[in-house]
């Protein structure tokens, strides 16, 4: 006789845990993206350490300079 998988019965507790996990992921994603932009923008400032400036320009250049473009739009040059 073959081994059959047991049927997956929807469980409210598992559904709530999955929703909580999804919301947690969405909140962290929504918080990390602006924070990453702020750190990258700080990396372009004069107060940033040289290592951070080098990393910022290399990382931003690797992705086509989106942070630099946004900063230029804000400043208006």
Q: Briefly, what is this?
A:
The chain is mainly alpha-helical.
Helix content: over 70%
Strand content: under 5%
Q: How many strand segments?
A: 0
Q: Radius of gyration, Cα only, in angstroms?
A: 22 Å
Mean pLDDT, nearest integer?
A: 89
Structural class assignment: mainly alpha
**How far is the first residue's CA from the last residue's CA?**
75 Å
Low-pLDDT runs = none
| Series of secondary-structure elements, N-terminal to C-terminal | HHH
Largest sheet: none
Basic shape: elongated
Layout of SSEs?
Blueprint: H1 12-43, H2 50-62, H3 66-75
Helix pairs in contact: 1-2
Question: What report would you give on this structure?
Answer:
The chain has a domain at 36-77. The protein is 71% helix and 0% strand. It contains 3 helices and no strands. The longest helix is centred in the middle third of the chain and has 32 residues, at 12-43. It is elongated, with a radius of gyration of 22 Å. The model has no long low-confidence stretch (mean pLDDT 89).
Question: What characteristics describe this protein?
Answer:
77 residues; mainly alpha; 0% strand; elongated
């Amino acid at each position: 006789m073959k081994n059959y998988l047991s049927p997956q019965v929807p469980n409210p507790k598992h559904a709530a845990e999955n929703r909580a996990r999804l919301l947690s992921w969405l909140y962290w994603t929504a918080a990390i993206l602006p924070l990453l932009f702020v750190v990258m923008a700080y990396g372009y400032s004069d107060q940033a350490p040289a290592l951070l400036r080098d990393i910022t320009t290399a990382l931003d250049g690797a992705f086509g300079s989106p942070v630099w473009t946004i900063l230029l739009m804000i400043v208006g040059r």
